[in-house]
């Protein structure tokens, strides 16, 4: 296996995601999901 090539490929995809603005949507959706899960945990307790 060529570890440096695999790592650079993942780093390139990470940069591509952040440049397209998808990272912003990903972080926003994860934050909303976390808030919903915490709210459900507090209500069900």
Automatic annotation (TrEMBL):
Domain of life assignment: Bacteria
GO molecular function: oxidoreductase activity
This protein's record includes keyword Transmembrane helix: yes
EC number(s) on file: 1.6.5.11
Residue spans crossing the bilayer: 25-44
Keyword Transmembrane part of the UniProt annotation: yes
Keywords: Membrane, Oxidoreductase, Transmembrane, Transmembrane helix, Ubiquinone
Annotated protein name in UniProt: NADH:ubiquinone oxidoreductase subunit L
Organism: Klebsiella pneumoniae
UniProt lineage: Bacteria, Pseudomonadati, Pseudomonadota, Gammaproteobacteria, Enterobacterales
């Amino acid at each position: 296996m060529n570890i440096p090539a695999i790592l650079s490929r993942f780093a390139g995809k990470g940069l591509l995601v952040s440049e397209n603005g998808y990272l912003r949507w990903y972080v926003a959706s994860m934050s909303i999901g976390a808030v919903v899960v915490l709210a459900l945990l507090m209500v069900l307790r």
